[in-house]
Specification:
The complex is a heterodimer of chains A (111) and B (115). With 111 residues, chain A is mainly β. Helices cover 0% and strands 56% of the residues of chain A. Chain A contains no helices and eleven strands. In chain A, strands 2, 4, 5, 9, 10 and 11 form a six-stranded mixed beta sheet that branches. In chain A, strand 9 and strand 10 form a beta hairpin. Chain A is globular, with a radius of gyration of 13 Å. The relative contact order of chain A is 0.35. With 115 residues, chain B is an all-beta fold. Chain B has no helices and eleven strands. In chain B, the strands form two sheets. In chain B, strands 2, 4, 5, 6, 9, 10 and 11 form a seven-stranded mixed beta sheet that branches. Chain B has a four-stranded antiparallel beta sheet with strand order 1-3-8-7, with no helix packed on it. The chains are: A mainly beta (111), B mainly beta (115). The interface between A and B is medium-sized, with 24 and 28 residues.
Chain lengths: 111, 115
């Protein structure tokens, strides 16, 4: 079963704009991870944030985690057409146990 | 870094036949591998957890007799879709627990089409 929901389900923006997507989950976690998937392809790991962390940055990516609200957000700044993909959050209840994925957000960046 | 190779990337088979999908960890030993199924424009749904040398643990609602999982070595897990039907058509992705910082590495997926 899926851990939680992602919001929005789909997002269409212009190149250069920021894209923000949210993820909610239901149970306690060890860490939360964000992945990107291009159409028909495998998953690419983007960033991992541990339960004791509140914010992490990686290049144009910024992830926040609020364990009290059981939610996370992914911000992509200065989006590019190449950022067009589906983005999934995944929670790991106990490191290396198994990942449970959210519903995903389909992002379209228009040139 | 840890690499997982999944093969084949695409397969078309006739209804009633069986199809085997392989998932190999290339440069590390994976005691645990995971098999996911993904429908178009949907998320990944965990089908089963495969542990080397033991029986796979299937998620609720997954038919273990239809989706046979074998994890005979520390570098290879296989998923066999038996007596495939058109409704089994889907994208199947494996991942391996690496024990490293990220914890998991994913294969590139297999697109199965049953005709």
């Amino acid at each position: 079963s899926q851990q939680g929901e992602e919001d929005p389900q789909a997002l269409s923006i212009q190149e250069g704009e920021n894209a923000t997507m949210n993820c909610s989950y239901k149970t306690s976690i060890n860490n939360l991870q964000w992945y990107r998937q291009n159409s028909g392809r495998g998953l690419v790991h983007l960033i991992l944030i541990r339960s004791n962390e509140r914010e992490k940055h990686s290049g144009r990516l910024r992830v926040t985690l609020d364990t009290s609200k059981k939610s996370s957000s992914l911000l992509i700044t200065a989006s590019r057409a190449a950022d067009t993909a589906s983005y999934f959050c995944a929670t790991d209840a106990a490191a290396g146990n198994k990942l449970t994925f959210g519903g995903g957000t389909r992002v379209l960046v228009k040139p | 870094g840890a690499v997982v190779s999944q093969h084949p990337s695409r397969v078309i088979c006739k209804s009633g036949t069986s199809v085997k999908i392989e998932c190999r960890s290339l440069d590390f030993q994976a005691t645990t591998m995971f098999w996911y199924r993904q429908f178009p424009k949907k998320s990944l749904m965990l089908m089963a957890t495969s542990n080397e040398g033991s029986k796979a643990t299937y998620e609720q609602g997954v038919e273990k007799d239809k989706f046979l999982i074998n994890h005979a070595s520390l570098t290879l897990s296989t998923l066999t879709v038996t007596s495939a039907h058109p409704e089994d058509s889907s994208f199947y992705i494996c991942s391996a627990s690496t024990g490293g910082y990220y914890g998991y590495t994913f294969g590139s997926g297999t697109r199965l089409t049953v005709v």
